[in-house]
Design a protein that fits this description.
Layout lengths: L9 H7 L3 H14 L5 H8 L3 H10 L8 H17 L5
Helix pairs in contact: 2-3, 3-4
Pfam family, one: UPF0175
InterPro entries: UPF0175
Keywords: Plasmid
């Protein structure tokens, strides 16, 4: 996969009180809020689980953009969690 680099001056990170990882997360959330990235792509790029990304989005008042693929991913995660805790459907 090709990638691009973005340079953020240290003084900008310092002024915003962000680490490079936090700046990346903020950009992913902003692009999701603008509907320029799906939740799946934004959360993967931000390095968060879907659950963490949804919690972060909700804390910012960003409405959930929920499609069938994300529902399938959530159901799979629930199924895996139930199995790992000895709960059979």
């Amino acid at each position: 996969m090709a990638s691009a680099q973005i340079e953020i001056p240290e003084d900008v990170l310092d002024s915003a009180r962000l680490t490079p990882a936090e700046a990346k997360r903020e950009l992913a959330v902003a692009l999701y809020a603008q509907r320029r990235l799906s939740a799946g792509k934004a959360r993967a790029w931000a390095g968060l689980s879907l659950w963490e990304f949804r919690q972060l989005s909700a804390s910012r008042g960003i409405p959930v953009d929920f499609d069938e693929a994300e529902l399938a991913e959530d159901l799979k995660a629930i199924d895996q969690w139930e199995r790992s805790h000895g709960i059979e459907p």
